[in-house]
Amino acid sequence: MTIASNPESILLVDALLEKIKKEYSLDQKLFSSILVTVNEAVTNAIKHGNLNDPSKKVTVAFRRSSSGAFIFTITDEGNGFNWQQAEAGISKGGQNEEGGRGLLIMEKLADKYSFNKKGNSVALHFIA
Predict the structure, then answer these.
(1) Enclosing H/E stretch for 72
(2) Which of 16, 58, 64, 126 is 20 to 30 A from 25, alpha carbon to alpha carbon?
(3) Helix segments in the chain, DSSP class H
(4) Could you tell me if 78 and 96 are in contact, meaning their C-beta atoms sit under 8 angstroms apart?
(5) What count of other Cβ atoms lies within 10 Å of the Cβ of residue 82?
(6) Burial class of residue 67 in the structure, from the number of CB atoms within 10 Å of its CB (0-12 exposed, 13-18 middle, 19+ buried)
(7) Is residue 92 within 8 Å of 86, Cβ to Cβ?
(8) Best CA proximity match to 62, nearest among 103, 104, 105, 19
(9) Contact 96, 43 (CB under 8 A)
(10) Average of per-residue pLDDT across 5-26
(11) Cα–Cα distance measured from residue 52 to residue 106, given in angstroms and rounded to the nearest whole number
């Protein structure tokens, strides 16, 4: 799914997540973790990646791994960010200006997350 970089587009992502919840009969705990984490990643892609530029797009891709994990990949058209530096700040117990709350949410709610080298795409893994 590709959406415009505006906050209203998150409703389209929510609809996709509801469809996945029903299709795979996700329990409420797993669904809540997916909903919060994917919405945070999409919000960050819109706000920080694409700088709220409605001409830029955010892509939300979903797949199941061979082991059954639910994997969501969120990609924006921005310049990326230094996720290694942001993670280092989190591991020291704090939030920094470049990626505090979003990384904490990913760390706590996703079973695994990983960024591409550029820092404009994140894959979120959830184990059922």
Answers:
(1) strand 70-76
(2) 58
(3) 10-24, 28-44, 83-91, 101-109
(4) no
(5) 12
(6) exposed
(7) no
(8) 19
(9) no
(10) 96
(11) 22
**Domains in the chain, CATH or no CATH each:** 2-126 (3.30.565.10)
CA angle, 69 as apex, 81 and 102 as ends, to 5°?
30
Are the beta carbons of 88 and 60 closer than 8 angstroms?
no
What distance in Å separates the CA atoms of residue 56 and residue 4, rounded to the nearest whole number? 6
| Digit-coded pLDDT (tens) for 75-109 | 999 999 888 787 766 665 555 554 568 889 999 99
Q: What is the pTM of this model?
A: 0.90
**What one-character DSSP code corresponds to residue 9?**
G
DSSP 3-state assignment of 3? Answer: strand
